[in-house]
Amino acid sequence: MLQLHSATVSTIGAEPPQLVSDVPGPRSRALAERLARVESRNVTCTQPTPPIFWDRAAGANVWDVDGNRYVDLTSGFGVANAGHAHPEVVRALAEQSGRLLHAMGDVHPAEVKVALLEEIARRFPGGGPARAVLGSSGSDAVEIALKTAVIASGRAGLVAFEGAYHGLSLGALAATWRPLFRQPFQALLPDTTAFARFGELEDVPRAASACAVPVGAVIVEPIQGRGGERIPPRGFLSGLRALCDREGWLLIADEVYTGCGRTGRWFACEHEGVVPDLLCIAKGLASGMPISACVGRAELMDAWPPSEGEALHTQTFLGHPPGCAAALASLRVLSGERLVERSAETGARALTQLEHRFAGRPGVRDVRGLGLLLAVELDAPERAAQLCARALARGVIALPSGDDARVLALTPPLSIDPDLLADAIDRIADALE
Ligand code: PLP
Predict the structure, then answer these.
(1) Which ligand 1 atom is at minimum distance from the Cα of 254?
(2) CB distance 137 to ligand 1 below 6 Å
(3) What pTM was estimated for this model as a whole?
(4) In the chain, fewer beta carbons within 10 Å around the N or the C end?
(5) Last residue of some domain: 336, 352, 384?
(6) CA 157 to ligand 1 center in whole angstroms
(7) Cβ-count burial of 246 within 10 angstroms (0-12 exposed, 13-18 middle, 19+ buried)?
């Protein structure tokens, strides 16, 4: 039996699946019909199979509106790092919401914004004075990084990577690879981004010289998340750091997915001892509230001019007090419950089990992972979609990822009970034909 770190981990939401209706059940089906009448049809896929509609969640469990209980191996898009609705996060949120629900982010801010920024600056991998700008989404954090890079370097050219996902707002979309997302909006995208092959250091100078304008920065996910949990060869990130130093390019680490303990270190770039110039954090930052940050060394962030009353980059909800309070609580939980270490240990055990249960089976191309960012790559998107559907019918929520959606991604809460995760993996493995 694996000895996990002994810190007390919240034990709520550690129940095996319990299904009491069809999946999806009648209430989910009815909601899907109502939704399809009022939401743009681009957003939620309701046909041919409706989704399950979530009713509540705790720890690693999700209950749908039909009363079915699932084990969530997605953390809700990699968000619930401390577990769904961690009591400390919920308490901090309730307390802050009752006292101050909204402030004036860049004019008359809330006290809690200061505390969160101090905490984020303290955790910046490079150490030393750091400063950050808060946002509400991962895309926001990327937009801030791209703007900072232009202001600091004076150059608009950007190298990004094939397979990269940095978000869908227009600035972030310019660095996102997948043609499906880009093609309809091509006319709105600047030609200032050049793409290099992910994991191939020698392709980066080629891409940079193909860029229409001089390059100021390289943006990289240390492990590609939505691109299919792609782990680059060891040395890629540190090589990229050295290349950026040589060429005078800024290195932006987009750790929206990989940050906050997901890969078994606070930030994935720490696996290679790499200190980025700018770091994007979101998803797991608050374990359930929409808040994000771009943080960087103070002297670099000071390329932004001082505000003389009009912030060059801000939002109505910047530094939203409940989000800040939730983020502070979540960071406390990640440290207090040693969930980053736990992510490394639970992930290593789960990877061994995945290799044992999946490697060499028909249709399985690869099994990989780092911490609790785990993946089984299949040979076809149909197989991945079918496996996800069957897993759901056995009470396990998992998602396909990758440009052609043939990777089964497993990113459970970092607090998940290792035996519960093992049981969920067995259920998925049993569902593979
Ligand atoms: N960057 C990375 C690495 C992501 O994985 C994502 C979302 O999955 C984003 C940026 C965009 O975040 P959001 O969807 O919160 O805008």
Answers:
(1) 3
(2) yes
(3) 0.97
(4) N
(5) 336
(6) 21
(7) exposed
